[in-house]
Amino acid sequence: MKTLSNIQQMKQDGEKISMVTAYDYPSAKQVELAQIDMILVGDSLGMTVLGYESTVDVTLEDMIHHSRAVRRGAPNTFVVVDMPFGTVGIDRKTDIQNAIKLYQESNGNALKVEGAHLTEFMQQATAMGIPIVAHLGLTPQSVGVMGYKLQGATKEAAQQLIEDAKAVERAGAVALVLEAIPSDLAKAVSEQLTIPVIGIGAGKDTDGQVLVYHDMLNYGVDRQAKFVKQYDDFSIGIAALEQYNGEVKSGVFPSEAYTYKKQIMSEVEA
Ligand code: KIV
Fold first, then answer.
1. What string of DSSP letters covers 157-190?
2. Which residue minimizes the CA distance to atom 2 of ligand 1?
3. Residue of 179, 247, 267, 269 with catalytic role
4. Cα(215) to centroid of ligand 1, in Å?
5. Which range has the worst mean pLDDT, 104-108, 145-149, 165-169?
6. Which tens digits make up the pLDDT trace of 247-258?
7. Which residue ranges make up the annotated binding site for Mg(2+)?
């Protein structure tokens, strides 16, 4: 497994870091087989896997349940687990209790939290030995307030984002995810921080990239953001399911090839 220091060294060596989300055993297994550097068990699982409108409905228990499956599928990959909406930013005691529970029970290697307002929590968690990845720019848990739109797009907002990035680094964050910001701003932040900066919709000059598994493989998604490159089309599975449906109804499946040869009824007194 790549350790945190391996990943931090990659930045020093100018080697790009790859990260993909996974939410269950088979997706985690695929990501590990593809030798992706890091897995994010994102609270995007609310939309991709659980069918919610946003990440807001995802619970600590959901994150634990899915992270444990991911760990079983990818025992040798560095796994970051999202702290979901409403589990951090409440009060010091509750925040840290939730972080301890998630870190212990998810089997993840680090936790991710959204927003620069959580620097005090980042310090506290880091002091307790919990590695924290910060997430700035478009932070999906705050979408009710900020909407799904480009962040850091004015001079003031860009300046603030640079200050926030420095603040989370000072607070002990081990890496930073930057989402949906201008690429020149992401480049500047990556150059000014010593921790790895992983971009999504932040251009090519960050230290690494993260994409959502279901987006990049077109697996059950209704709409795609501008920054998503689709690497495959898993919606093709629908044609296979339609064929199976037709074959069951017409009796084509199961043919002899899919049937045990042994006959027993001549021996049974019925
Ligand atoms: O939950 C998630 O998938 C994320 C990525 C968009 C970075 O936070």
1. HHHHHHHHHHHHHHTT-SEEEEES--HHHHHHHH
2. 42
3. 179
4. 11
5. 145-149
6. 999 999 999 999
7. 43, 82, 114
Instruction: Give nearest CA residue, ligand 1 atom 8.
Output: 42
191-194's contacts with Cβ under 8 Å and 24+ in sequence apart are 192/162, 192/165, 192/166, 193/165, 193/166, 193/169, 194/11, 194/169
Q: How confident is the model at residue 228 (pLDDT cuts 50, 70, 90)?
A: very high
Atom 3 of ligand 1, nearest CA residue: 42
- List binding-site positions: 43-44, 82, 112, 114
CB neighbours (10 Å) of residue 37?
Answer: 20
Tell me which residue has tokens 């739109």: 149
Per-residue pLDDT, 270: 73
The verdict on whether 179 is a catalytic residue reads yes
Q: Which three-class secondary structure state does DSSP give residue 26?
A: helix
Residues near ligand 1 (Cβ within 6 A): 21, 40, 42-44, 82, 135, 177, 179, 200, 210, 212
Please identify, by atom number, the ligand 1 atom nearest to the C-alpha of residue 177.
7
Alpha-carbon distance 207 to 129, whole Å?
24
Residue 260 pLDDT exceeds 90: yes
What is the model's pLDDT at position 223?
87
Closest among 36, 103, 97, 92 to 64, alpha carbons compared: 103
Compute the radius of gyration of the chain from its Cα atoms: 22
Give me the percent of the chain exceeding a pLDDT of 70.
100
Burial of 21 (0-12, 13-18, 19+ CB in 10 A): buried
Mean pLDDT in residue range 158-175: 98
Amino acid in position 168: V
